[in-house]
Design a protein that fits this description.
Number of helices: 10
Strand content: 15-25%
Helix content: 25-40%
Largest sheet: 9 strands, mixed
Order of helices and strands: EEEEHHEHEHEHHEHHEHH
Distance between the termini: 32 Å
Shape: globular
Length: about 280
């Protein structure tokens, strides 16, 4: 796999890097960003994938999240992929901010014409994971995942679908029950088709109902109570599903915080510590 280094920047004793490569899964060029801590110079280090939300790119989290300082303290390699394919040429893919470009929802689409390129599940879990733990200094045995909003949905879903691959998971304001909200119905219906039974495999609440405590170290979710999109997120439904499954969950509700990166950066330190405890313990 030929990686093209677009840029690199010294950062908290490590390196913030941006890459481009030809994706065999997506069938198009893809971009991702990586923070490489100083410890990677002497061996493989724990990996934490971050999945961003609607309209974001591989740059958004690295610029706004304030995570590199905490990743450097814990010796964790951070990875942020783009949020969808770019340049697929699907008719209408740029018509809506919440579907198509910038809105891949981290699923493998099954409906034409989306199924040819919109395969973000396999891209992250198989291809990008392989690059990070093969060509880059990530440790495949110590890998976690987290994200925000659409990316919080993606983190919960991909972790629940692949508990042997991801040892830790957390989320900021995730779309926790996409089958129950307008964003999710639009995306899952468009990518997976009208049969709602097919949606369950990409709905964190439905997956959790069928799980048996896949993350004994616990899941951390932070939710702002002034979040303008709270009606789309349904954290209570996910909390109830965790209770049924016996899954330890810390769901923290924060007065006054909204949906954006001021909220995310405020609690970033806690999320890095959550993952470090499970990936390095």
């Amino acid at each position: 796999m030929a990686l093209e280094l677009i840029s690199e920047h010294r950062c908290f004793g490590g390196w913030q890097r941006f890459y481009k490569h030809e994706s065999t899964v997506i069938g198009l060029p893809m971009r991702f960003s990586v923070f490489v801590p100083a410890e990677a110079a002497s061996g493989r280090v724990p990996v934490l994938f971050y999945l961003a939300g609607l309209t974001c790119t591989e740059e958004t989290f690295m610029i706004k999240g304030g995570a590199q300082r905490h990743a450097a303290e814990h010796g964790i390699l951070l990875v942020a992929p783009d949020t969808s394919p770019r340049g697929a040429g699907v008719p209408g893919e740029t018509d809506n901010w919440d579907f198509g470009v910038g809105a891949g929802f981290y699923v493998n689409a099954t409906q034409s014409p989306w199924d040819q390129h919109y395969r973000m599940d396999s891209y992250i879990v198989e291809e990008l994971h392989g690059i990070v733990t093969g060509e880059l200094p990530g440790d495949a045995a110590r890998t976690g995942i987290f994200g925000h909003s659409m990316g919080g949905h993606g983190a919960l879903v991909l972790a629940l679908r692949n508990p042997a691959k991801f040892r830790s998971v957390s989320a900021f304001a995730p779309i926790a029950a996409p089958s129950q909200c307008d964003w999710g119905k639009k995306a899952l219906g468009g990518y997976l088709g009208p049969d709602t039974a097919a949606w369950r495999g990409y709905d964190a609440t439905e997956l959790m109902k069928a799980a048996q405590q896949p993350f004994p170290g616990g899941i951390l979710v932070d939710q702002g109570l002034k979040d303008q999109f709270l009606h789309q997120l349904h954290p209570d439904a996910f909390e109830a599903a965790c209770a049924v499954a016996g899954q330890p969950l810390t769901l923290r509700r924060h007065e006054g915080y909204d949906h954006g990166y001021y909220f995310i950066s405020t609690f970033m330190q806690d999320h890095l510590a959550h993952h470090a405890a499970q990936l390095k313990g």
